[in-house]
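Protein modeling request. Please complete all fields; requests missing the sequence field cannot be processed.
Requester role: graduate student
Desired output: 3D structure, token encoding
Chains: 1
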Amino acid sequence: MLGFCGTYSGTIDDKGRLSIPSKIRPGDPETSQKKGIPAADRLIVTQGFDGCLSLYPESEWEKVQQRLETKSFAQKDLRFLNRRLHQFTSIEKIDRSGRIHIPEILRKLAGLGKEVLVLGANQTIEIWDPDQYEKYMDNYGRTLEEVAEGLYTDDPNR
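Delivered output (158 residues):
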């Protein structure tokens, strides 16, 4: 499966709804398969990493859950991650207009205003405040090539 990709501008309305761009909007299995993205009529909305929100199709969220279940609950970091991740998680249905509700607590956590950036990020869709995303990219400290080299150095299949 291709996964979610692309960068889009979006707007959160006064009721906290965001229209998911049609090119990356999950839908019924047949439509989603044609787009190369996971099917879903509901998305898991949660605090993402690095200052964004993450939207997961249920099938991808199940993989996150399964991964967490393989770890020992005796680990302090796992308990923290588990609590923090689930504390701010909401299951939201995509409405007929392709919109999803973003709960207020999550909008506040990510510093989202009316204007947002919607990014396809393979298994997830990320929602960013445009200024926060620009700061994140400017301050990352390494180039795309440096990051790729570091990630693929240990890969025997590169």
